[in-house]
């Protein structure tokens, strides 16, 4: 059993003016309390009178989570898990409603939320955060559930994380699917924003640099969601376990400063994390293996091959020539897991005997 957590971003939709006022009031009071707290002004009468106007668990949560409070920064309202309630309704405005605790309204404030479709029955709500962005309110709803991961799979999906593509996947037995390439655009996004940053840096436009940085992060995160969804869907429909390198290998094999810079700029860690929680959420295991040797070993005959140029793999022993180096790597990563592989939790991976592994 593993405990899987994820955050679902929900937009608060069309709150009535009254509700919006109440929400803003609760928020303003909390923000003001936090600022007073920062300057050690919690002895002032205003502090105590404000405290009476805020739902006490909401301010306790804030003080617990935000250790260092910055001047004039707005902090999300954090709700204790047992105080949040999500309901499914047949209301015309929205299917899902959240009830949040507030001193402004007895019994809590009910708000319609819009999010990606989710099955809300099978998880437990965790501490979640409500925040305002450009006059809209959002709830980052954190949920978790205990998942029993499968131990029996019919195939293995080896994933090699690379530079040209974020990832290349090879399914084994290979007859099931041809290799798939993901996220070519990530490097392009990185390059484009690298260039913009340089230009802005010369003009010392620090605010702009930050703004573009956020824009870049959003674009990359979108790509990573798309890539991880695609891989997990593939693993689900083929009943595959996903095998990835443990990333330590990537850093070890990195040569030279330039290569290191590219590696540290590629969001491998973020992608692996996403892949893991999304796969686990559906009961699929992600096995992390040592990447050592996976880029230089021939996937057909296990001899040591050569990389005459970027992206190409040759093997003089079995005659494999001009082979795609990423496909070779992904196949080797998948090969590291075979039937009987002992998993971290002591379970054994079982693959059908006819597998080409
Ligand atoms: Zn070979």
Order of helices and strands: EHHHEEEEEEEEEEHHEHHHEEEH
Helix content: 25-40%
Report the strand count.
15
Give the end-to-end Cα distance, rounded to a whole number of Å. Answer: 27 Å
Strand content: 15-25%
Number of structural domains? 2
**Low-confidence runs of at least 5 consecutive residues:** none
The CATH C-level name of the largest domain is: Alpha Beta
Radius of gyration: 25 Å
State the helix count. 9
Shape: elongated
CATH topology of the largest domain: Nucleotidyltransferase, domain 5
Helix-strand makeup class: alpha+beta
Attached small molecules? zinc ion
CATH homologous superfamily label of the largest domain:
YqgF/RNase H-like domain
Attribute tags:
357 residues; alpha+beta; Nucleotidyltransferase, domain 5; 2 domains; eight-stranded antiparallel sheet; five-stranded mixed sheet; elongated; binds zinc ion
Q: Could you please describe the fold and organization of this structure?
A:
The chain has 357 residues and is of the alpha+beta class. It contains 9 helices and 15 strands. The radius of gyration is 25 Å and the shape is elongated. Bound molecules: zinc ion. Residues 298, 300-301, 303, 315, 317-318, 320 line the site of zinc ion.
Secondary structure blueprint with pairings:
Elements: E1 2-12, H1 17-38, H2 45-51, H3 56-65, E2 77-79, E3 85-88, E4 96-100, E5 109-114, E6 124-125, E7 128-133, E8 136-147, E9 155-161, E10 167-172, E11 180-182, H4 185-202, H5 206-238, E12 240-245, H6 248-253, H7 256-265, H8 268-281, E13 286-289, E14 312-313, E15 323-324, H9 325-335
Parallel strand pairs: 9-12, 12-13
Antiparallel strand pairs: 1-5, 1-8, 2-7, 3-4, 4-5, 6-8, 7-8, 9-10, 10-11, 14-15
Bound molecules: zinc ion.
């Amino acid at each position: 059993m593993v405990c899987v957590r994820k955050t679902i971003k929900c937009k608060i939709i069309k709150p009535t003016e009254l509700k919006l006022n109440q929400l803003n009031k609760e928020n303003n009071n909390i923000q003001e309390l936090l600022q007073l707290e920062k300057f050690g002004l919690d002895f002032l009468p205003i502090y105590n009178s404000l405290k009476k106007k805020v739902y006490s668990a909401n301010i306790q949560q804030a003080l617990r989570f935000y250790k260092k409070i910055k001047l004039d920064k707005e902090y999300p309202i954090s709700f204790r898990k047992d105080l949040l309630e999500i309901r499914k309704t047949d209301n015309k405005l929205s299917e899902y409603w959240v009830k949040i605790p507030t001193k402004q309204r007895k019994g809590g404030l009910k708000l319609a939320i819009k999010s990606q479709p989710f099955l809300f029955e099978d998880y437990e709500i965790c501490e979640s955060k409500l925040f305002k962005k450009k006059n809209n309110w959002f709830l980052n709803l954190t949920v978790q559930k205990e998942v029993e991961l499968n131990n029996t799979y019919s195939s293995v999906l080896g994933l090699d994380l690379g530079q040209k593509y974020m990832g290349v996947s090879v399914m084994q037995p290979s007859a099931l699917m041809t290799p798939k390439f993901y996220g070519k655009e990530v490097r392009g996004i990185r390059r484009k924003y690298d260039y913009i940053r340089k230009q802005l840096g010369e003009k010392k436009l620090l605010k702009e640099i930050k703004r573009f940085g956020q824009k870049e992060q959003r674009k990359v995160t979108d790509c990573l969601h798309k890539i991880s969804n695609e891989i997990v869907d593939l693993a689900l429909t083929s009943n595959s376990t996903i095998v990835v390198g443990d990333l330590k290998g990537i850093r070890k094999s990195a040569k030279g400063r330039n290569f290191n810079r590219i590696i540290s700029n590629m969001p491998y860690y973020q992608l692996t994390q996403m892949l893991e929680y999304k796969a686990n959420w559906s009961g699929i295991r992600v096995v992390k293996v040592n990447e050592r040797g996976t880029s230089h070993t021939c996937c057909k005959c296990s001899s040591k091959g050569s990389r005459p140029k970027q992206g190409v793999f040759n093997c003089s022993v079995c005659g494999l020539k001009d082979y795609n180096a990423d496909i070779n790597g992904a196949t080797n990563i998948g090969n590291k897991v075979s039937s009987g592989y002992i998993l971290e939790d002591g379970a054994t991976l079982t693959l059908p005997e006819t597998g080409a592994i």
